[in-house]
Each structure stands twice: as C-alpha cells, then as structure tokens.
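Appendix B. Chain record.
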Amino acid sequence: MAAKRLLEVESKFLFNPSLVPTLLANGGTPAFKRLESLGTHKFTDTYFDSQDTLSKNGIWLRQRTAPNNNNNNNNSSAATILEAKVRISGDFARSTFDEITDPHTIAGLIRPHLPQFSAEKQHCGLEVLAEFMTTRQDFRADGKFAVVLDCTDFGHSVGEVELMAEDEGAAHREIENFMEG
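Structure tokens predicted for this chain:
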C-alpha cells in the first residue's frame, strides 16, 4: 500500500509588522502554551505561467532562491529550488496544497498544460508573472503549528498557520481551534 502524501494545510491572516514584538513576548490572547522562534529568512520567489494557464488550473510554479547565508543577500551563493504548488481545496484564506519539488513530477504535471515547459530553459520556457523578495519569520507554536510571518519588498504582509497532514479536514479543524484559542 502506497504511503499517503503529506499536504500543506494552511490558514492565512493579516498582521501588522509593528505588533511582532507582542507576538514574541507571547502577549496575545490567548497566549501560546509554547512559542519557539525558528529565525528569520530571506528569499526571492519567481512565479511562472503562460496566459494564466497554470493558475486557472490551481497550479502555481515558482522558483525560490535563498541565500545560503541569510546575512548575505548575494545570490551567487544561493540555493534555488523549483516547486509546483497544486491547490487541493480552499480559497486564499484557507487552503490545502500539494507541494511538489521533484523535477520529473513537476514536468509531468506542467507539460499537459504547457508543452513548452522545460526546467532547463530560462524561466522554464514560460513567462515571468511576478518576482519579489520576502522576509519570513518562522515560529513553532505549541510544539505543532508552523506560524510564518511574511513581509514582501512591495509592502505586503501576511501570516500563515500551517500543518503538514494527510487528513486535510482534521488539520483545518485543528488550525481553526488553535486560532480561536
């Protein structure tokens, strides 16, 4: 019997970056049982598509580039990964994705929609939809929930509470209970 894939189950929320010290002091209501900071990371995401073909099919193809040393923004020593995010269910605020990083699996997913796709070509042979830098603060809350706070170089801020799970329904309920306190 094949093992079930872990899905990324997430709920997004807006946050004010000026209130991060309150979070770090665990001063919210309700307070976390435990909050562990996992550090701050910077990365650049480049999203690819052609005439919105992928996004209309719930697929987001991106290349993420992160400096190996987060104190150095010189991408010459950067790690780069190609990733496809496939929406399983949900909307912008509450969603479930299958995240794929295997190049052969990505090619098999993308080529039926866009035959010109090639991971070896510049921009994968597709159009660049967006490119931006994100500063991410990572946390582990109550020993289980990933909490990320993202601030982009164009001024957008969004937070996410995430679980990696096989059962998306149960994971969404756990996240909702966690966020409601």
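Further analysis of this model is presented in Appendix C.
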